[in-house]
Design brief:
This protein has about 400 residues and is of the alpha/beta class. It is built from 13 helices and eleven strands. Strand 3, helix 3 and strand 4 form a beta-alpha-beta unit. Belongs to the aspartate/ornithine carbamoyltransferase superfamily. OTCase family. This is Ornithine carbamoyltransferase, mitochondrial.
């Protein structure tokens, strides 16, 4: 119905408008000569234009955003970058333990949330990461296997896109390496591998910080941290911790010898990746492999081992204990094999007595507890480098 104006018979004074029954148009007398449908169409059109413009801006923002840099393995780093992460961890450790104020860490994660997505249980990794995020002023949000099941109730793609839209970093401790790789592939924020079946880069940063502290050198400013010429002997299962450690050794000019029982050696694809770490390195470390522990420890400065039965391998415990007989690290093994007289020992923990004797684990040769603490400084350095400084270090 239209609004119509009529005039009174006496003096032509306008009366209150009345509604016509046959139209929805405003009478031509009205300055608003528009139909209600036209108004609706205009509003709808304006909304669509605004929505389209917003979508375009959002799309351009996403397309123009820099691709985040992730830490999947030490192989992702150049020798200089790896050395810089270790040096940064060392610098911060010295400063903070020396009494530097909290402001020294600059609060680079202030107002930011770091999602800690752990599908495997953890002690050192969880504590060190939560502490590091807090020290940088951020909020660590722990998501355990009961909170989030990667790739089970929701695809890794969906999980990555959603969680990365709400946080500033994802730290993932997973089983298959493909899980953390897929999180990184679809994430809009940095993803840090806190352990996968293939790699453990944060452990390697901590291990090299421990070596850097134990074997200081006047040439430590170089790309090799002054560690070139050292020899590391790994005795035990060729696993994820070894793979990143070996890559780091090759990049830093540290020789590494690996003694593993038959059937537990480095797989071909990992051997190739370790070898490729020498590309572009002037004096890379060398990889030696054997099935005889005594051969591996000859002239070694550092003896290293890890658990013989990793998470998920419990059903094979008895078989593994039998297969690894003779691979326990003892003073006698080091002596028989001819390790350096001042050799040291490292273990990423948790430790079991069959892997290393108490006489070594609790001796002055053992670096295991400083090594464990260094997980904190390694996490802090990685978060600073990949999240705060956006992959530039």
């Amino acid at each position: 119905m239209a609004i119509e104006n009529s005039t009174a018979g006496n003096g032509g004074s306008p009366e209150k408008p009345t509604l016509a029954k046959d139209s929805l148009t405003v009478n031509s007398f009205s300055p608003f000569n528009l139909t209600f449908n036209s108004i609706l169409k205009m509003k709808t059109s304006a909304f669509r234009i605004a929505r389209g413009a917003a979508a375009g801006l959002q799309k351009r923002a996403y397309s123009q955003a820099a691709t985040p840099r992730h830490l999947m393995t030490i192989a992702d780093l150049t020798p200089n970058e790896f050395a810089n992460l270790v040096r940064d961890a060392n610098t911060r450790k010295i400063a903070v333990k020396g009494g530097a104020p909290a402001s020294y860490l600059n609060g680079g994660l202030a107002g930011k949330t770091v999602a800690m997505m752990f599908s495997k249980r953890s002690t050192r990794t969880r504590v060190s990461t939560e502490a590091a995020v807090t020290m940088l002023g951020g909020h660590p949000m722990f998501l355990g296997k009961d909170d989030i099941q990667l790739g089970v109730n929701e695809s890794l793609y969906d999980t990555s896109v959603v969680i990365s839209s709400m946080t500033s970093c994802m730290v993932a401790r997973v089983g298959p390496h493909s899980d953390v790789a897929n999180l990184a592939k679809h994430s809009s924020v940095p993803v840090i591998n806190a352990l996968s079946d293939d790699f453990h880069p944060l452990q390697t940063i901590a291990d090299f910080l421990t070596l850097h502290e134990t074997f200081p050198s006047a040439s430590a400013k170089g790309a090799t941290l002054g560690l070139n010429g050292l020899k590391v002997a790994w005795v035990g299962d060729a696993n994820n911790v070894l793979f990143d450690l070996a890559i780091g050794c090759v990049k830093m000019g540290v020789d590494i010898s690996v003694a593993a029982p038959k059937g537990y050696e480095i797989p071909d694809n990992m051997r190739q990746l370790i070898s490729s770490a020498a590309d572009g390195v002037s004096s890379p470390g060398k990889l030696f492999e054997t099935n005889v522990p005594e051969e591996a420890v000859k002239d070694a400065n550092i003896l290293v081992t890890d658990t013989w039965v990793s998470m998920g391998q419990e059903a094979d415990t008895q078989k593994r204990l039998k297969d690894f007989a003779g691979f326990q690290i003892t003073n006698d093994l080091a002596k028989r094999g001819g390790a350096k007289s001042d050799w040291k020992f490292m273990h990423c923990l948790p430790r079991h007595p069959e892997e290393v004797a108490d006489e070594v684990f609790y001796s002055p040769r053992s670096l295991v507890f400083p090594e464990a603490e260094n997980r904190l400084w390694a996490a802090l350095s990685a978060l600073e480098g990949f999240v705060v400084n956006k992959g530039k270090f």
